[in-house]
Structures are given as C-alpha cells and as structure tokens.
Amino acid sequence: MTAMTRILIRHEFILGILFVIVLFAMASQNDRFLTTANLLNQARLMTEVGLIAIPMTFVIVTGGIDLSVGSILGLCAILLGVFWQNLGLPLPAAIGLSLAAGTAAGFANGLIVTRFRVPPLIATLATLALYRGLAEGISQARSVRGYPDWFAVLGRGDFLGIPTQLWLFALVAAVGIFVLRFTTFGRTTYAIGNNEAAAEFSGLPVVRTKLLIYTASGFISALAAIVFVSRVSTTRSDMGSGIELEVITAVVLGGTSIFGGRGMVIGTLIGLCLMQILQNGLSLSGVRGDGTTVVIGAVLIVAVLISNLLSRFSSD
Amino acid sequence: MTPILELKNITKAFGPVKVLTGVNFDLRPGEVHALMGENGAGKSTMIRIAAGDHRAEEGEIRLDGDVRRFAGPREAQAEGIIVVHQELLLFPALSVAENVFLGHQPKTAAGLVDWGRMRREARDLLDRLDCPNLDVDQKVSRLSVADRQRVEIARALSRNARVLIMDEPTAALAEADVKRLLEVVRRLRSEGVAIVYVSHRMNEIFEIADRVTVLRDGVSVGTKPIAEVTEASLVSMMVGRDIHQLFPKEDIPRGEKRLELRSVSLAGVVEDISFDLHAGEILGIAGLVGSGRTELAQTIFGVTPATSGEILIDGKPQKIASVREAIDAGIAYVPEDRGTHGIIRAQPLRENVSMAILDRLTKFSVVDTGREQSLASDAIKRFSIRARDARQRVGQLSGGNQQKVVLAKWLATDPKILILDEPTRGVDVGAKTEIHRLMGDLAKKGLAILMISSELPEVLGMSDRVLVMREGRLSAIVDRKDASPAAVGAAMMQGRREPARAGAAR
C-alpha cells in the first residue's frame, strides 16, 4: 500500500471530508450560516469543550477516561467567585487559586488511578460526584455576578479580530499536537494505551505520565472554567455539568480509540468543529435541540462505522 | 485391531509456515499412546486437528475405520474425542458440578437444569476418578491445580470420552499429584478409554505409555512400543542430532564478574538466591514451571524489586528499585511472555526497537525520528528480521521475527548483562538457530548472559553453567561438563512433596 492510500483511509481524513460536506450542506440550507461573524461566534462557543478535549485526547489514548472534567469546571468556577467576592481577593489571585484547585483535583484523579489502581471510569465517576457536590456545597446555590469589565475581554472580547479565548485554545491545541506527536511523552502515552505492561517493562515512566495527564486534564478544565465565567459573567454551581459527554464525543468522533493506543489531537479538532457546525447549522435551519442531539449521535456512529470498514481493507 | 482414531498423512500449514507434513498417528482402544517432541514440533497442532479445532489441508482422519471430517470441535466431542488442555479451561466462579456439566447439563422434563441429578452424576464421575474428597458444590476458584485437573477430566468423562487427549497434564503438578494422575490414567485405560498422552517427562512416559510417537519439525519420526525405546534413543529421535552438535556453543574465556547476587529474596516467591555471572558466560537457569525462574529474573530487572539481599554489579552494590534503574545499570531483560511484556503489537517496528532507549534518542524531549529510523533499519539488517520496512506493525510479524525485534530493542540499550527468559519459545527452528548463534556472538563480545529455558536440551546445550531452581530456591549449580539431563532433572525434581501452590503455579 502506498503512503498516499494510507493517508486517504485514515479516520482523520475521512472526517475532514465529512466536515467539508456538512459545511456546504449547512451553507446551502441557510445563508446566515457561512458568515465570518457566525463562524467566529461558533468558535467562541466551542472553546470550553475544545480546551478540555485536548487533554482528554491524551487520557483516552492511554486507555483511560476522565468523567470528572465537567465537575472540576463547575468547582473551579464556584471557587473563582468565592475567592474573589466572598474572600475579597484580587481577581488575578482568585484566578490563580482557582487554576491551582483544578490542577489539584486532576492530580487527585491521577493518584487514585495510578497509586490505588482504581479503573479510571470508576475513579472519575466517583470524583465527578465528589467535585460537583463540593461545588454545590460551597456555592449554597448562590451565584456570583458583577465581574469587572477587563475580565470580560477573555470570554467576550476580541484580539486582532478573533475571539480572545480562541487564541488561548489555539495555543493549548498546538502544545497538545506537538507533545503527542513529537515527544517522548507522547510516545509513552501511545505505548501505555497499546500495552501498559510492555511500556513498564521497557522502563518508560508509566505512572508519572498518567499522573501528569490527569493533572493536565484538571488544569485545563479549570482554565475552561475561567473562560466560561468570563463569557457568561456569572458563576453557578451547575456550570459544565454534562460537558464531559460532549468532550468525549468530540474525541471519539475524532478517531481516538476508546480502548486506547490510537488517536490524534488533529482528529479531535476536526471532530469538535464537525459537532459545532452541526449544532449551529441545524438550529439555524429550525431543527430543535433534541433533534440536533439525534443527528450528532447518528454522525458519530456513521463516522466510526466507515472508519472500521476502511481499516479492514488496510493491513496496517 | 482397528484403531479407534487414525490420522493419515496429515499436512497443515499456517500461512507460509508448514507445521505438519505427512504425519501419521494411530490410537488403539485401551492404550496410552505418548506423543513427544520438542516445543514447536507440531504436537499441539496435531492434537487440534484430531479434536476438530483445525482442519488439515491434506490427509484424512479415520474414526473406527471410517473417514471423518470434523467441521468443528463440537462434532469431535460428540464422537467422544475430548482434550484436557494444558491451561485448564474451567470457569472459576462456578461450582465443580456446574463445570463438569457445562453445556450439557441434565434437564428435567420441564427443560430446567436438574440440579439433583447433576450433582449426583458429578459425584459418581469424581468417585470414578478416585477423588472422594472433592466436594461437587465447591467453587473451582478454591481448588488446587491438581483438583482442577481432575474436574477437567471428569468433564471429559461426562461427555463419554472414548479418546482422551491429555496435553502436558503434569506440567504444573507436584510429585504426589503426578502419581495420583497416572493412577487415574491407568484406571481409564482399563475401562477401555484410548489416551493420547503428551509430555516431556521421560519417567512418566516409561511408567505409563504403551507406545510412543515422536514428532520433529512437523514430521513423525516414528512410532514404537515403549519396550523398544530407551531414554537416549527417544532424545535423539526428538532432537535428531546429538545435543552438543545442535547448539553452536563456543568456548569463551570467562571474563570478570559482572553480576553477583547475595542471598536475594522476594518475600514468599524467591528465597535466598546467591550466584555470580561473568562476562562472556552463559548461565542457564533450569527449573519447572512455578519454580521461581521468571520471578527471579524480574527481581533482578527491578519489576518486582528484591525485598532483601544484595545485588552487585561490577563488584559494586547496586540498588535496583525499578526497571529504569535496572536499564541504567546495564541490565536488559527479554521477557518470557513476548506478547504481554515484550512488544507493542499495534505500533511500528521502529517504535518498538527504540522503546527502551527513547530518552537517549531525544533532543529537548523531542524524539529524533531520523536516528530512530536508522536504528530500526540497522536492526532489520543485523538480525535479518523479515519485515516489509521499519514502519510495519510488529503484530504482523511471525513469532521468530517478533522475538528478534525484542532482542534488537534490548541490545539497543547496550547492556552488560542480558537476561533471556525463554528466548526461543514459539519460535520456528530456523529463527531458533539464529538466536542461539547470536547468543554465542554476544557472549564472545563480553556480554554476561542469564538464560531461562524450559527446554532442557537448550539449557544443556547453550550454558557454561546451569543453575537449577526448585520451589523458589536455588537447588544446584551444575558445571557444563557435569550437566547431564539426569543430573539437572534430578535437581529440578528432588524432594518435591508440597503440592504446587496456586500462586507459584501462576
């Protein structure tokens, strides 16, 4: 098989084609869809899910899963409000502390998974409940409002004509692509997902790598919380609930194997964009929210089916 | 007498690899027919064909003189051809009676499982096997290996076995249990069951078998009544040549001391091991399955760090608490279980070869793929790995080539001490010889090699000294000149009274 056909039957490539098709289909349905303003706004809306999807790609490539990201987002959003308003800290300090809390929450996930060898599904299902419970307990169902104007720049402002948070997202995505693709850390991530025992027997730092990945997942979830709060300029304890499913959908749609060992950040990005334009395009065409969910589910299944079918034709 | 089961001129290939060529085998009612041969000689494939798991490309199977084609194992089982596999295929969470009758439970008129009858019949079968103490309601997970095997045999009898194929039934048994098992085999034979008995153990063969067939490299070398063969003639039939000719062992002057163990223990698994290993030396480790050989290797390699004792490298005490530390200290370990611990099937050859030295192939933690590629190309040339290119996934290679990938991966670390755990298991004859020659070359270059092997001819043929392990302890160190199958075999077996522990038997 030539290198060309190998690229052509990659999941990521097929997904890219699917993306273009959907893009044109949506554009032909509605002339408000394919406008710079709409597309940039959609990009703004997908940043929180997108940010978390980058470390989630790493997590799933190791064969793990992190269900607690939505709860960490909620917890960090609440903490931001509490540190700033209730404790009276300056907002930058509150942001720093909130990021630190998210990092710690991710580190705790990593410890439970590596040191106590709890399966990631169970471990993060437990912390999903735990962190959300903490968020609700701390917030006492009160919301925090009235953030200063400079803070809103992150979530609602532009920089060089592009939504501010999109620059942040691009940076995180670039780091993700680079680390997974080119570094020993990325190589170790794939090795763990394909055969953890063999990775250990090869002297690769399995525990350290997993710990770092879950910690990064917590940190980026906190970062997403800051962006979220800035965008909606309020904090509520139910922020980010259910976001983990959107994140995981984007990653899996992007071609990352849920069994680990396979996947690319670039695929995740395409999966993410596909989901977002489907949602937006369908709602512009007057399809209701539940209808959109059905379509996204169907696209996910079709994408995975096509990819499985084609991989049967390729020997590698 | 018409043979109950006859294989005629059987040929079988897996892809390009011919496993059996024109094999003949016949089994008479009420006989124990031993099947012998080295690992990879084709015994398992022959058994699988007889049991309907595989279909032969050529040749025929006759049952009671009639030509039969089995579409699958169920058809063979319906005719009473039952295999007791080496790795017992029981369901640990179910009871003894449930395991015995799984798939053919006695039913009541209403179509429900008739528990009373099932338990009664299971009881009768176990009594027939002379194990009145085995409780039919006991969960199988709580039984010893020997008892599990009895359950498996009872299961075979419950299907009215006429032909019972036993694949290395004593591999994991202690001496007392072996005796009881042979008793059971005799009893079944007197009831008219025909038994194919696969084993490497000479004393069992001479004790129990009526006839013996030897396979070598997929060809039947001969079938003889047991009275007409001796241990020596069987070995030469199996190996084909004199042991010392088969292995390209060269005399290499012993260099300085590389590795020394001083009463190293891993609590409860490996006890009080002391030995030394020199540059240019091949030290073989012999022992039965469960004797702690692999556990010792993994202790030295830092997978399961030693709980007491001292490891010295080049005369200096060295703490080895992790695989990383072992690699940094110059130790490499080619594991026994290639698929689980050696290779990553889904990843390309070049990523496998570089895996243990990734940290040395990087600049600011970015993998230098150029150097990685040339490392892999060199490995393909040096070890003559048959792969399309360095990008081919390792899972697509044959067993022998996979093993060469693992060897390449570990030699890339430039080790001083190389531990080889079953280096030629599941490897075809050609690759085996290449691996043996490579071991000689490495020793000549001053590597200290520790080799674990279950194949006695390999241990005896390749080693300068043989370290024999038994029940987690060192039972003897034998010099090459004194290393005979009898001497090493005796050290492996002597004083085995305790039943095999479940933990140690893995």
Fraction of residues in helix of chain A: over 70%
Which ranges of chain A are low-confidence, i.e. pLDDT below 50, for 5 or more consecutive residues?
Answer: none
CATH superfamily of the largest domain in chain B: P-loop containing nucleotide triphosphate hydrolases
Major beta sheet, strand line-up of chain A: 1-4
Alpha-beta content class of chain B = alpha/beta
Measured by DSSP, the beta-strand proportion of chain A falls in under 5%
Largest sheet of chain B: 6 strands, mixed
Strand order of the largest sheet of chain B: 6-7-8-3-9-10
Q: What is the class of the largest domain in chain B in the CATH system?
A: Alpha Beta
Can you walk through the features of this model?
Chain A has a domain of 204 residues. Chain A has 316 residues and is mainly α. Chain A starts with a helix and ends with a helix. Chain A contains 14 helices and four strands. With 506 residues, chain B is of the alpha/beta class. Chain B has three domains: 236 residues, Rossmann fold, CATH 3.40.50.300; 177 residues, 3-Layer(aba) Sandwich (Rossmann fold), CATH 3.40.50.300; 63 residues, no CATH class. In chain B, the strands form five sheets. Chain B has a six-stranded mixed β-sheet, with helices on both faces. A six-stranded mixed β-sheet of chain B has the order 16-19-20-13-21-22, with helices on both faces. A four-stranded antiparallel β-sheet of chain B has the order 2-1-4-5, with helices on one face. Classes of the chains: A mainly alpha (316), B alpha/beta (506). Chains A and B meet through helix 9 and helix 10 of A and helix 11, helix 12 and strand 18 of B.
